[in-house]
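HUMAN: Please help interpret these tokens:
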Amino acid sequence: MTTYRHTPRQVEELEAFFVKCDHPSVKERQELSEKLDLEMHQVKFWFQNRRNQMKVQLGRQNNCFLREENVRLRAENELLWETMKKPLCKDCGNPSMEGQRLRAENIRLKEEINRFCSSINGTGF
């Protein structure tokens, strides 16, 4: 199989079309192949590869976000554990107000992560 490098002009044209439509029809691919002096399969594979690149980039961004979120939740978890180690309020016997606030915030963050993960799973990741 021969490796083919597209010219800068071809890449520019393909990218411009990709911005408008990432799944060109057979007719559109035919027009692009004629306009750019490429074979039909070259255009087809270029779009397939470009869509895969976009998917990988989005996955990396999502992974980065989830890693940062994980670090934040771990730090919050440590705070919760430290708060839980503290004795109960001497007057009312309940956990401190700070502990209650942190627990509520932890629940909210977990729900937010679940919604985010659900939206990712809905896009095919």
In short: The chain has one domain: 8-122.
